[in-house]
Design brief:
single chain, alpha/beta, Rossmann fold, 2 domains, 7-stranded mixed β-sheet, 9 helices, 26% strand, globular, binds flavin mononucleotide
């Protein structure tokens, strides 16, 4: 089962590389024979959540793995890491890695994993991108985060790597993947993500099963309040909601987001409410 799925996925991704190359080169060349692609998982993880996710991708795909390692690790406390990363972002002096430059020629697909820091990928990823040429490769981003950053980081990756084929991105919150059954949940989500990827789904297509946005009921507001009770980062005010029935209910709340002296902006907040008796509503992502 795992093998055949890997082959289907590899075939689909090989076609993605093929499409990109075909558009760039002469169309008169003979179609290249479909071949199983060679994949590598490249990731950075400070505290282990992204490492867990990288391990799940490696298992699912049967890929090689490269863990990017800082020459000088970030400090051990959250606040001092914030200060260190803030300074790196400010100066654009990306941190040295002990293994920045990698031999990637034999891979056509790079699964690139990172924690979200300051709304996008962690600084070691800039060092990796500066040191390696991903042109012509399929790049599959995946991340862990506190509240969000999946789409924004994938968009930045597309900008920085215009000659790579950056696909749909996968993300999961730190709270979910580090929960007691977090590795299992993450595995299910990775498998679902890989199926969507192999089927060529886009974020827009994946939104398909949701109803139209509608005014909030008291029950919607209660779901929102429960799921966001520990979210202290920015102020979120729900305006309307749409839902999707799965094994439980997915909610997409349109919210205004404010704080940190930023003008209020609109954002989508995704919440999952399990079936009755299976747990509390849970914050999945704040799309920023
Ligand atoms: C310096 C720093 C900045 C962070 N910035 C964000 C952020 O902007 N948005 C977010 O959702 N999470 C943010 N986080 C949370 C991490 O993305 C999250 O804890 C992640 O799962 C850590 O992954 P790791 O265990 O692999 O290091 C930040 C964490 C740190 C240490």
């Amino acid at each position: 089962m795992k093998m055949s799925f890997s082959v289907v996925l590899a075939f689909s991704l090989t076609m993605l590389v093929g499409c990109k190359e075909e558009s760039a080169q002469s169309k008169q060349q003979a179609e290249p024979a479909a071949q199983v692609s060679k994949s590598v998982v490249v990731y950075y993880s400070q505290n282990g959540a992204t490492k867990t996710l990288a391990g799940i991708f490696k298992e699912a795909i049967g890929a090689d793995v490269i863990e990017l390692q800082l020459a000088n690790a970030y400090p051990s406390t959250y606040d001092s890491t914030i200060a260190a990363v803030g300074a790196q972002r400010e100066s654009k002096q990306w941190p040295a890695l002990v293994n920045a430059r990698r031999e990637l020629a034999r891979y056509d697909t790079v699964y690139l994993g990172y924690p979200i820091m300051f709304g996008s990928f962690a600084p070691p990823i800039y060092t990796f991108l500066d040191s390696n040429d991903l042109s012509g490769k399929v790049v599959v981003p995946f991340c862990t985060y506190g509240s969000g950053g999946r789409k924004a980081s994938a968009a930045e990756l597309k900008e920085l790597e215009p000659n790579a084929n950056v696909t749909l991105a996968m993300g999961i919150s730190n709270r979910r993947i580090t929960a007691e059954n977090g590795a299992e949940i993450a595995k299910e989500e990775v498998m679902a993500f890989l199926e969507n990827l192999a089927a060529g789904k886009t974020d827009e297509m994946l939104m398909g099963g949701f109803s139209e946005q509608r005014p909030l009921t008291a029950e919607d507001s209660a779901v929102f309040a429960t799921a966001t009770k520990d979210y202290a980062y920015l102020s979120l005010k729900p305006l309307s909601v749409s839902t999707q029935v799965v094994a439980g209910t997915n909610y997409l709340f349109l919210c205004t987001m404010s704080g940190f002296n930023r003008p209020p902006t609109e954002t989508m907040v995704k919440i999952f409410k399990p079936l009755p008796g299976r747990g509390e509503p849970e914050l999945i992502v704040v799309e920023k």
